[in-house]
Amino acid sequence: MFGLRLDPIAFSLGSISVHWYGIILGTAALVGLLLAVQEGKRFGLSPDFFMDLLLFGVPSAIIGARIYFVAFQWNEYKNHLVDVFKIWNGGIAIYGALIGAFTCGIIYFRNKGYSFWRIADICAPSLIAGQMIGRWGNFVNQEAYGGEASENFLRHTLHLPNWIVNQMNVEGVFHHPTFLYESLWNLLGLVIFLVLRRRPFLRAGELLFAYFIWYSLGRFYVEGLRTDSLAFLGADWAASFMNALWSPLKAAGFTQGYLDPAYGNIRISQLLAVLLILASIAMIIIRRRTGAASERYLDPIINFKTGLPAGAEEKKGSSVTSDEATVEHSGRESVDRTDDSSIKE
Predict the structure, then answer these.
(1) Hey, how many other C-beta atoms are within 10 angstroms of the C-beta on 285?
(2) Cβ-count burial of 234 within 10 angstroms (0-12 exposed, 13-18 middle, 19+ buried)?
(3) Which sequence spans correspond to the domains of the chain?
(4) Which of 30, 231, 322, 344 matches a 20 to 30 Å C-alpha distance to 136?
(5) Rounded-to-integer distance, Cα 132 and Cα 125, Å
(6) Could you read off the pLDDT of 113-134 as tens digits, one per residue?
(7) Separation between Cα atoms, residue 191 and residue 221, nearest integer Å
């Protein structure tokens, strides 16, 4: 054991060990929920709407993330199937999590009668906030780090505290804290999204596309630093193109993390990042030109099943209940007056 590595187990309850990884992911989900609930209130959406979404969405995201990762690492799991379920040891892919979460979201939103784009916009800051916090789970597990970096670079160039530097010491070699790079990138993105969603020019769906663009841009460059990237063997021209796109970071003095040529020459996450950026930009342009993005982010959210604004049904129900209570109360007063008159007579 080198350095002062953090214990991945937070505490134990008898034979049950509670890992920091799970605690951090739980915290990420909770923060994301609170952000969505707070914004949802502005549009009349109840907290229960987002709590139910979380109950369905988190398991879907975890399952999708694990399936995605295992699918690209099948040779390592096919003879140890039990290890497929040990997610507390790490090994989940964020793009798989997004696939799982968005599949669940599409079904859930449609069932509730709401536009996917409108609710996804509200959830976009929650997604990036969750990823910002969740990356610290990789830090505790000492995984998803970058290539070799000097201790001097970490301590005196980045001015990182000892507890981060020590954790980046893996078997005697210091590595780039890619978890930190991505976490800080997401923090900046969160601030931008919170400001952007108050701008009147923002159309429905565009905050979600902004999330895809921002996250994918940062992920492309951070992924190039990592040494554990999922990859495949592709055309040499495509690999050269990816390297050319990454060259600005190389010019800044960074070195790409090692990628075994026999394993692959194109990092899957980098390829997906480029495709998501291009697709998101195209969708923004197409939806605006075709009129599909006529709704604005700040417009009321309409339930297409009832034709009413979000929350109107609850208010209507409360109004009916209040009216019934008033009628009942008035009826009782009339009866009381009648009884009083009979007594007096």
Answers:
(1) 11
(2) middle
(3) 9-310, 311-345
(4) 231
(5) 10
(6) 999 999 999 999 999 999 999 9
(7) 20
Closest CA to 231 of 202, 274, 270: 270
175-188 per-position pLDDT tens digit:
999 999 999 999 99
Query: CA-based angle 57:63:69, to the nearest 5?
Result: 130
Strand 231-232 with 173-174, pairing: unpaired
84, two tokens: 């497929």
Q: How many CB atoms lie within 10 A of CB 176?
A: 23
Helix axes 94-112, 268-290, angle to 10 degrees: 30
Q: pLDDT by residue (tens digit) across 201-233?
A: 999 999 999 999 999 999 999 999 999 898 999
pLDDT tops 90 at residue 314: no
Identify the pLDDT of residue 326: 47
Phi/psi of residue 203, nearest 5 degrees: -95, 165
Query: Taking the CB of residue 286, how many other CB atoms lie within 10 A of it?
Result: 11
Q: List CB contacts of 270: < 8 A, sequence separation 6 or more.
A: 219, 220, 223, 224, 229, 242, 246
Binding site, annotated residues: 135
- Rounded mean pLDDT of 273-297? 96
Burial of residue 76 (CB within 10 Å: 0-12, 13-18, 19+) is: exposed
pLDDT of 323 over the 60 cut = no
243's tokens: 């390297």
- The whole-model pTM stands at 0.85
Which residues, in sequence order, are CB contacts of 134 under 8 Å at separation 6+? Answer: 24, 25, 28
